[in-house]
Amino acid sequence: MIPPRHNYTKKNHAERETAAQGRAIKREKKEQLQKDIDAFLQQREKLVVELAEKHSTDVVKVRKLLDRAFVVKQSRKPNMWNARVKHKAMELNEGRAKGDCVKLSDIQAQVREAIDKGEYSDTEDDKMIEELKNSRELKSKGARSSNRAAAVDYNGTTRRLAEELANLHERCGTMGFAFVTRGHVNDTIVPQWIESQGSLRFVNDVLHTTAEELLQKFEQWACAQDRSYAVAKKTHTIDSLRSESVNMINGGLRKHFSTREDNSTQLIFILEKLLGTANVNMSYEKYEVDIVEQYGVHLRGWPKGLKRQSPSKITNMGDARALHSALSAGECKWVTLTRQEKDARAKKRQDKIASGEIVVKKRKKRSDAGKKRGPRKANNGGDEDSDSDKENQPKAKKRKRGSGNVAAKLPPMPKSKETVDTSDSDDNVD
Q: N or C: which end of the chain has fewer CB within 10 A?
């Protein structure tokens, strides 16, 4: 991601007056140059007409021959000089405010002096070449850090594209058009089209629709394709980066417990697994107590400048990508602390608590602290008679669990007599 530019420093009255005078001088020079260019173009057009009449040809043909110069410039490949100057500039300007950077001439002088002394080795040169390549790739392909930066880049690029299409038509006689729209519903880019020499008449004559309707359909299609495109190309949104980072942190923590050689931690993990509480999760607010001091592990390699917090709370795309890259590459991983390291971190935390640097929130004391609670609660207001009455009371019988419910669910049954009267025939039997 391309880092955002620093805010403009506020100038005092004298600096504003000096800057205004400088802008006025530049404006006058620019106007004078434009006047001279206009005069030159008028003379050039007269010469074009004279050449066409002299050689009995068309004026358009002469103009095309004059304007057919190859204007596309190829970018230079990274060379050793540019790589060294780039590295020295980053080294000298690190931590400096905008407007206080070292001049390019001074940087180049220091590079020449270092070359004369033979301070550069082959390994350093290769590293600087790679840094220059990464810097150029970041400038050309890096994602913008905000919607405003993306909108500025979009407007400038489309403006240049429109100029190139128009100039290409003048030079080569080509025709073309382009539709540009946003690729996600949350983007603030305004869709627009670009054409040269009335090329959009093709939409009306052949497609039998208007450019506005076609642009609207193209925008809807692009926004609907965002999710499938991200899945197919394995691109990441900030939500996917945060979700995967959370899974990697928690999954790495549990895996680290199960594979540790420390017998005490393995025993804790086995007991928690048997009790159904083995799903250990990362604790950010009480990281030192719940993770470091309890389990003796530490998440080492957290990106510098990024607050140690849950990835779900990260709102910047660059921070989310930095954390995800560190976890994926193994730079940020769980490590086991030795007993000395664990005790040192615990002592450091206690010192901060004692000095007031860390404020520990204490739980509020219960109103019935020190008293028996529940079924064995003592009757503080009773006397001896009440105690004797309680002793004389019969103990309550325990009701069998579920017996009453089962009897209530059974249908009513006919009752039979306890004794059955014998018949006369039975009495007469000897």
A: C
